[in-house]
Design brief:
2 copies of one chain form a homodimer. Chain A is of the alpha/beta class. The first copy, chain A, has 8 helices and 7 strands. Chain A has helices at about 1-5, 10-15, 30-40, 60-65, 75-80, 85, 100-105, 130-140; strands spanning about 15, 25, 45-50, 55-60, 95, 110-115, 120-125. The first copy, chain A, has a 4-stranded mixed β-sheet. The longest helix of chain A has 13 residues, at about 130-140. Chain A is elongated. Chain A starts with a helix and ends with a helix. At the A-B interface, α3, α4, α7 and α8 of A face α3, α4, α7 and α8 of B. Bound molecules: ligand 2BA (2 copies). One ligand 2BA sits at the interface of chains A and B.
Chain lengths: ~140, ~140
């Protein structure tokens, strides 16, 4: 296994850095979160707090579940609910000392996982696509 | 590589069979597609035609893009547009003779790919989760 580890990239090489990750703030109304999700085209994005710590994930699925109960999907109702009321808070995070195999295990059940630094601040995300791309390269070596 | 192939599962073993896959019909109105997506919890599901051939994929992202242009997300507008008008028609499919490595290549850019039989009829889907689970097993062997 050790030889194998030598050829795998580090988490930093796999990671999409925070400045390239669409995200919302924990106190934002759902209306704002929905606009960020629709404009970015992503199904789900990270939720950060004002000190740039990762708090969870907000998705189109969660927002649709919340408001489809009523006859019309009134956008004004989305302005009354905040992101922290319906976000998923159990998305796993990786720390600086973790390896690609740790990312692989967590990505089995999550489309992306977050990466934080020693102080717990948000550094970026690792996506299933980035891991699958590595495997497809590795297979041909 | 040959020895490697022996330990990998066949596509049939990896596949979620069609009876377990939530799907919609090409002629359905978007209102129905949105209800299937919200009830199943999935971001996107396959679109089939009346002869059970795979035609594309419909997603919450596409439906939201389509209707968010107006002030309120009126559900009645969703009943006027049909699935075939906005679905993604370029999702790749695997045929019976393909291997897991073919699935890996296609899953780099798609969360799931479809599997068809010799007559082109829909057999099921292979998801990124199923491939990642195999890799995590393989790594520990
Ligand atoms: N603008 C685009 N250009 C090219 N391909 C695109 C794309 N948007 C989506 N895709 C493709 O569709 C997959 C699923 O995207 P989804 O938005 O559902 O799910 C995404 C999204 O929720 C999140 N994500 C990815 N990149 C992000 C970013 N820069 N900022 C925030 N969230 C991101 O991670 C999930 C998994 O991403 P992953 O790349 O593995 O997988 C992506 C990618 O293969
Ligand atoms: N009810 C549930 N129970 C447990 N885990 C769940 C779940 N719903 C979603 N997940 C998890 O979230 C991932 C993304 O789901 P999503 O709905 O965006 O994206 C899904 C969905 O669009 C589609 N899909 C998966 N299973 C399906 C099914 N039985 N019928 C129709 N579409 C399916 O394939 C995509 C990738 O699926 P994958 O399993 O790789 O990845 C899934 C899975 O890891």
């Amino acid at each position: 296994i050790e030889k194998d580890k030598l050829t795998w990239p580090t988490l930093a090489e796999l990671m999409i850095p925070s400045e390239k990750v669409a995200h919302v703030q924990i106190g934002n109304p759902l209306e704002h979160a929905l606009l960020v999700l629709v404009k970015s085209g992503y199904s789900a994005v990270p939720v950060l707090d004002p000190t740039y710590k990762f708090q969870g994930v907000i998705s189109k699925t969660k927002i649709l579940e919340e408001t489809l109960g009523i006859e019309e999907f009134e956008l004004n109702r989305l302005s009354e609910i905040q992101v922290n009321e319906i976000m998923d808070a159990d998305v796993p995070c990786l720390q600086p000392g973790n390896h690609m195999i740790d990312a692989l295990h967590k990505l089995i059940d999550y489309p992306f996982v977050c990466v934080t630094n020693e102080d717990g601040e948000f550094d970026g995300i690792i996506t299933r696509r980035s891991i699958l791309k590595q495997y497809s390269k590795h297979y041909h070596e």
